[in-house]
Amino acid sequence: MKYKKLIFLLGCMISLLLGKEKQVTPREEAHLAIVAVGGRPEIEALAKGEDTVLPPQLLFTRSANGEKLRYVLGLNGAPVFQKVPAERALELKKKVEPQRSEQQHYTWTDPLLAGSRSILFLRPSNEPPGEWEGAPKMDLVNIDTGVLKRKNLCIKNFTKIKLEVKIGEKREVIPAESFVAIKITKNQQEYINLRVTEAKENKEILVQSAVKISPHYFNVCILYETNPKTNRGKKMGLYKATVKKPKRVTDEDR
């Protein structure tokens, strides 16, 4: 009788193991954050309930294990990383209407490198700047590999004009729809000045801000067009995000 019970238990254990969902290894995963970047909409448009002046509040996709993932999109919000499948494109969906559960296709991402951490920046694709109707423009920033791996600051120019950037003692010219990656050596946390002008003789200051530089963190700055009516008279906005570096990269930089 004892042997029958033992055989029965072993059979149950084998069935559970065979039926268990495949575990995803770190090599099959990537970490993705999604951020919507853009200027604040006019109060009148918000009051009218126009849904094209803001990005979708929620985006949905699947994790590496096939579970549902939800990204909360606040305009110019902080990046929040979640585990997603690597090496293949991800479909992002949005709700048909905010109060309903039905979802519809929104856009596709580019495949992500296994083990990487990336921020997907969404921005309006329509004119004037700030209209979120239709599919967005997308820019994927892989912060742990490639040209950014040994840098600690990335400045992206989402505008249509060439910009000159002075960050601390460094000067860089960034063409329209391009970026620069910079390494600023600091042994401790320090704030440095960021000043942005148009790359021409009449150098009106478009953006000026302080950027926190630390040997343990990576910074992303996004320059984008905005409506002067809702941006204190300025035609350009600045988004800043700080992400902790992996320990192995921090150790190698010493």
Q: What is the strand and helix layout of this fold?
A:
Elements: H1 2-19, E1 29-36, H2 43-47, E2 58-62, E3 68-72, E4 82-85, E5 91-95, E6 103-108, E7 117-123, E8 137-142, E9 153-157, E10 163-167, E11 170-174, E12 178-182, E13 190-198, E14 205-213, E15 217-225, E16 236-244, H3 247-253
Parallel strand pairs: 1-7, 9-15
Antiparallel strand pairs: 1-4, 2-3, 5-6, 7-8, 9-12, 10-11, 10-13, 13-14, 15-16
Structure commentary:
A hairpin with a 2-residue loop joins strand 10 and strand 11. The protein is built from three helices and 16 strands. It has a four-stranded mixed sheet, with no helix packed on it. The protein has 254 residues and is mainly beta. The protein is globular and about 50 Å long. It has two domains: 118 residues, Immunoglobulin-like, CATH 2.60.40; 108 residues, Immunoglobulin-like (Sandwich), CATH 2.60.40.
In short:
Helix content is 12%, strand content 40%. With 254 residues, the protein is mainly β.
Overall residue-averaged pLDDT value: 83
CATH-derived topology of the largest domain: Immunoglobulin-like
- Residue stretches low in confidence (pLDDT < 50, at least 5 long) are 4-9, 14-22
Which geometry do the CA atoms define?
A: globular
Instruction: Write down the secondary-structure element order.
Output: HEHEEEEEEEEEEEEEEEH
**Roughly how much helix do the residues carry, as a percent range?**
10-25%
